[in-house]
Amino acid sequence: MDTDDIIGEVLTKIRPTEEERAFVESLMMELKAIAEETIESLGLDVKPYFVGSLAKDTYLAGDHDVDLFLAFSPDIPLEELREKGLELGKAISEKLDSYEIAYAEHPYVRARYRGVKVDLVPCYDVKSWRDVRTAVDRSILHNRWVLENLGDRNDEVRLLKRFLKGINAYGSEIYIRGFSGYLAEILVIKYGSFLDVLKNADFMLRQKIIDPGNWLKREYELAMKTVRREAEADRPLIVIDPVDPRRNVAANLGWERYGFFYFKAHQFLETPSREFFFPENRKSGSYLGELRRKGTHLVTLAFDAPNLVEDVLLPQLERTARGFEKALPREGFSVLGWNVGHSGNKAFIMLEVDRRERERVMIKPGPEFFTERGWDFYRKNERVWIRGKRLFAEKRVKEDIAEVIVELIEKNQVAMGKNVREAIRSAEILLDYVPKELGDEAYLFLSREKWNLKG
Question: What reaction does this enzyme carry out catalytically (predicted)?
């Protein structure tokens, strides 16, 4: 099949049908009516706005999450916005099917209505970036900008989003660090089509700065401040937000996810296939076979996952894995790779290491013998000798990596995420073995299929 045939076939799957569009429109009309009625009954001066992919008609078939923003006058204080916004969100949700309170910069309400997730988010009704006071205020401006600039390229955005999802590079959450929907829309507006975005994967990386709002002419000082800050942070791309010169739309995009996009774009243009959009299940195999093939070992810490949202839990697990990656080499073990995640209510950290045991005795270098610390070293150690000016001693060491890990945790010698520290203290430490439900995960990690650019 040639590229056009593949794109045509993919579009029939991802473009919403007429029935679906009718459902979405009626859902939005009902929600708007409920919101307006509730605002009026509470005597509030608030405008409801739909934002996100439904409002911009860039949503994928079957993906109907609703973002309803409740825009308050910029004159009211932030504390009042939080209080009244939550009160209004709850009052609207009482008329929907169910709801819960969620927390971001300020509390908002996550509801469900007619089988669809509905986020009710308080914000300020801003007309310009100069009025922005909370992180969510820009969403209304983003919506407006995309609607004014996208034209009839909605399907091009759908293709890019589905491609990014297929290669596992979609989502700007901190634990994914991929492309946001808004970034995908900007790239299509900037380059013209899905295929043109792929063709520019190399160019945009070399160019580094994308400025669709022309801020480097209109607000040079502010825009340059953003560029310098983001260049210093070594971001793959700097996409100056067309509605706010102070913000990089690609700030959360990590090098790994951009790298995935970079290679997969090249591969698709060379050998197009629907697999890029709808990958088949990832390969499975034996993690024990991988350990035998490589001669390495697998240490898994399994523990009850603290009750945290993924955006918080996964970065904390990553921080802890990096802590072990730094601490274990000091104890004579090399960490060849790590992997984190959760399965049901269990969280895990997997470490691939070069050995399970180490030497019984280590040589411990000490200070110069004629110092106060030298005397302290001399008193504390059993076998002590001098080489040049420095003292040395033999140190008997724990041999097994599981013992070493327990000791490191007990002595607080591993940097760990603060919300997972206590749970890890009671973790089960498994050597070269994982429970059945983690078998595939262990194989994908050890074989590197999880991140395989050629897979």
Answer: a tRNA precursor + 2 CTP + ATP = a tRNA with a 3' CCA end + 3 diphosphate; a tRNA with a 3' CCA end + 2 CTP + ATP = a tRNA with a 3' CCACCA end + 3 diphosphate
Residue 165 annotated in ligand binding: no
Q: Does domain 287-358+398-451 have CATH number 3.30.230.10?
A: no
The annotation status of 119 as a binding-site residue, yes or no, is: yes
CATH annotation of 16-136: 3.30.460.10
Instruction: State the chain's mean pLDDT as an integer.
Output: 94
What CATH number does domain 361-396 carry, 1.10.3470, 3.30.70, 3.30.530, 3.10.590? 3.30.70
53 is an annotated ligand-binding site residue: yes
170 is in an annotated binding site: yes
Rounded CA-CA distance 145/347 in Å is 41
Is 142 a known ligand-binding residue?
yes
pTM of the model: 0.86
How confident is the model over 146-201, as pLDDT tens digits?
999 999 999 999 999 999 999 999 998 888 899 999 999 999 999 999 999 999 99
Does 395 count as an annotated binding residue?
A: no
Q: Is 56 annotated as a binding residue?
A: yes
